[in-house]
Amino acid sequence: LGSAQRRVRPVEPNQPATMGGALGIPEMPMDDINRIAKEVLDTFVPLYVKSYAILLMQKLKDEADPGTPIPYQLRTPPTPAEPLHEGWMTKLGAVKQNWKRRYFVATNEADNFRVYYFAKEEEKSDPSRKKGEIQPCGYKVKELTKDEEKEEFGEFAFTLKPYGRRRQWYIRADNAEDLKTWTGVFGYACQQARAPLNPDPVMSGAFMRAYTMTRWRLGVWGWYSYDRTEEELLSQMIVDRCESDCMGPVYAKIPGGRMERKIRKQVQDMLDQTVGAATGSVWKATVSGIESKKDEVEGAAKASLGALFEKQAELKNKVKEAILGAVQPPLEELTKPIMTPICNCLMGPLVAAYKELMTSYHERMTEIISKGVKEEDLIDFVRDIRYWWGVMRPALRQIYKAFREGYDDDEPESAKVSFKIKVNIGDIVDMLHGVSAWQVEWDFEKSLRKTMGKAIFTFASELEETKADPTATLNETMKKFMHDAKLIVLEAVSEIFRLVLKPVFIKQTSKALDPILEPLDSMIPDPMKMFLDISKMANDLMGELLDEVINGAVTAGSPEALSMLDSLPSELGFA
Under a CB-based contact definition with an 8 Å cutoff, are residues 95 and 102 in contact? Predict the structure, then answer.
């Protein structure tokens, strides 16, 4: 890998014609763009190569010692593969800007919610015959409601709007019913889809680690998400730095008037293309270098696994002794004044959401049992949890009220939930750090849907296996549901704290730790340097210290809020 890393040093971006002066387009600051691209790529590439080796070792260690999983009781269903929906719609082309009739197939989780479109319906079973596809991660769905939008795009049109500069899709359904169905399907897919990263978890994990460390080393703090390919994410980081560092004077020179927006778009396209060309060549060379050495590196790691683990344990103890005095004071200063009050604010609405979720589940399942349990009714139940209305709405309302200031849907409050929102969680998240409150909300919303799906699958599986009375099976499932709900809430609150506190903690301590850690780095034998990293050990230790504080605060603050669930057995009759 070392030789691979040396072979793929970042290259200078190819300089396209700047078009300076043409149609009022100012000269592009190519020297500055080259400098910024080189700085980012020079920082990222070595970190990525090293991260691959480190995470490979972590994978081997986890395989040797898997640890203790969280003791959830609900069963995990198989990854769904059946399409979410399919049918005819009309899409606007990206280049010729003409409308074309296409047959759309929205895939499920097994295919990461990709949406394929075909020229003919009979081609839908062969993705290789697709005319194109939509990767929904990083998009949001918006119906076109303004009169001028309907006139331009059609009465039943909607758009998929990207976060950042990517293609915006315009699609037209055939009627109001199809519009509602497809916007619901796309909304669910956009929310659930993962970033289209490398399917190898070591490769994708190495990218995310190197990407985060590159941002930290270059002083780029604040919220970000993985919502596109690795190559696109790297390009976006460079473009963002160019926008803040050198593009301001360029935009200032664009003449005003009716051509201003068009010229600005041309300048942005030129920047994206220039950066994309540089990033693409470096990224492909880096991945190729690692892929060519994968088997060799993994073989070497496995051959020396015992010695690596022994040395890692030794170094970890030394790192702990060295940094403890430096990190304890800022950790206490950062967490002590806020942990208990914020924990109380976070816990209540999340518990309320799960109480509503369990109530909705019990009511729907009781209805299914009363009619005689049928497979199609259970399938319909699973489908219904994709949407924000219907069975999921009472639980999601609790989350929306907690995260969105002023949220009110004029629906009467459930009598079973007595919790009242006093502090907006979104405000807390924004106050503590640049983490997106929307992302935290979405993560918990996904958790609600996932848990509902597990409860449906648990009931169906156990009913089929035991042939027991359906009501008795439901009662047993509800007990497992309540057990898991308490664990999920505790983990969710802990994760929110990790998201907002860990970057601040590392930022406050990183400079102070550099001179402490530097001498320890020399203690790693040369053959092990690719697999062991003192900085990672320090970050892992700081994460463990932070987790201890978080877990203590969450455990101490949980009994009162979690007790809200204790009344459910008597209320719903499954004690």
Answer: no
